[in-house]
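Annotators were shown the component list below and the corresponding predicted structure, then asked to write short factual statements about the assembly.
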Amino acid sequence: MSELSVNHLLGIKYLQEADIDLIFKTADHFKEVINRPIKKVPSLRDITIANLFFENSTRTKLSFELAEKRLSADVLNFSSSQSSVKKGETLIDTVNNILSMKVDMVVMRHPNPGAGVFLSKHVNASIINAGDGAHEHPTQALLDSYSIREKLGNVAGKKVVIVGDILHSRVALSNIFALKLQGAEVMVCGPKTLLPKYIDKLGVKVETNLRKALNWCDVANMLRVQNERMDISYFPSTREYTQQYGVTKDLLNTLDKEIVIMHPGPINRGVEITSDVADSSQSIILDQVQNGVAVRMAVIYLLASKIKQ
Amino acid sequence: MSQKVLLNAKEVNIILHRLACQLIEKHNNFSNTVLIGLQPRGVFLADRLAKILKEDYNVKNIELGHLDITFYRDDFRRGNKPLKANSTNINFIVEDKNIVFIDDVLHTGRSIRAALTAIQSFGRPNEIELLTLIDRRFSRHLPIQPNYRGRQVDVINKEKVKVNWYEQDNEDSVYLIEK
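Structure shown to annotators:
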């Protein structure tokens, strides 16, 4: 296959395994490009991309912007805190106003789940979901799988545990879809209050004991506790959470094998993961960030190639 | 679809040796020269020439690279078929080097234009030359001509030149195919 089966990247659940394979093969080429002395290719010089961030982001926004610029696209940046959204404009109106300035592609982060799907039905542009509420964050899941593939050679057959706040995490959901699609075994681990009630229906194992989970897995993806999305108290105290679900070097040393540690960032050092683990050779956190640019370049390039002139 | 043999294995072999000799005539011991095969089909020719130079003419230390031009093409989103990338493998600096681009067929010249842009990402070469096995006459869209050519052919637009390599197609040959 040399073309994606979709015109938008709204979530991993809309992709096929061959799509992921194509994205990764294309990302391999872009990874080589971004390690050259001149890290830029002219492919998308006639494409304009709007980055619409209705929710705060540092890493994802920078990563997308860098990916777009390395492909020579023209880039528009928008964040809701400085915009007319505050004056009562609707999402479709905001986006259509931007599109009337001849924008070809929209990268959007939005606090409401399904915002990307909604938009794709109403506006004439290619949409990339950069996170919609607690729903999906497809490019993060793609770069996580890409990093596992790079470190361990393959995703199929690997055992991956996602630890922490599964309930509020779009990264967890997209990762579950992506890993299952590629044939990995997935487990989620966290306090019962932070595990969605029917999560096992997605075909994942559920574990509340961190040590057991780590002993089972090849890769542990540590998630941040999303305090900003918590309307009630889900655990007694941060200290108690850390004691039960924080990964420390001592804990890793008691395992009988060396596992790979991942984190989508931003890290709360000393809460879900200690500094010595985050900075250790087992951790591929900074590789994830570098791969993020290559994977996003691949997604943008492949979607742009489907926009007809 | 009908096809006609333009070159058979023996003729290809003779031409490859002649091209190798022409390269030696110009570049001597290749101390400041690098060969760059253009992906996808130019790399077979580049690999073969490098092998002939090493084994038959005892030229040592030939630097050989492969360059993919997919992301530099000017027909992105214009064709019906999506463009498929190949790997680039250039693990040396091209700054101040004499480069020989190597491709199987020179047709419109657009691939070479893309390669001229792509190579700039690896430095500023001293000089760039072009070697092609087949030069399709009267078909150029750009003012680009080869410095070394295997065989010049006149081909009308609805015909296609197909170069086969033993490594991939189990024979060395060049066909003229009528679409």
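Statements collected:
1. Chain A touches chain B through 27 residues (CB under 8 Å).
2. Chain A has eleven helices and nine strands.
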